[in-house]
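Tutorial, part two.
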Amino acid sequence: MDLKELEEFYLKRQSCREFSDMVVPDEVIAEVCRVALLAPSAMNAQPWQLVAVTGERRADILKNIQRLGMNKFASKASALVVVASDKSGGMMKVGEIFKENEFVCNDLGILTAHLILAAEAAGLGSCIIGWRDEEKLRESLGFKKNVTIPAIVALGYTAEGYPVREKKRKPFSDAFTLLK
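Running the prediction step on this input gives:
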């Protein structure tokens, strides 16, 4: 893939808020997650876990991301992929002490980007969901208190006729500087 093909791929990918009724096979969801988990992380700590929730178990997740009328579109997603991290990992703590920096947030952001791009490559729509009741989600999933859930990604086949929206970005010159 050259840079022009990558740009076209990025221009096509968008947050999907209208999923079809067609169910995504578990094998496809697992493969998207497997490819996403190839994402790099600081010191190769891989401080993450992906939990794909499908079928009836989605109701447990939906009630904790749809409060106040938010994220109603997620009800039609075939899967809700929970991006989780246990911040108590030893390698992460050592790295943060020596580098005086917390890498986990960067690592999880990179993983989430890899997840939505892998979904796009597999012909799926996706949408990152930030609005959530993290405490209730932890309880529902049986996670310990030290586990964080920075994002949930809704996955599914995009509804037929859902338009690809034009990307509106600030001018390149406002967002990029080259210093020498």
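Strands lie at 49-54, 79-86, 125-129, 147-156. In part three we will examine how such features are distributed along the chain.
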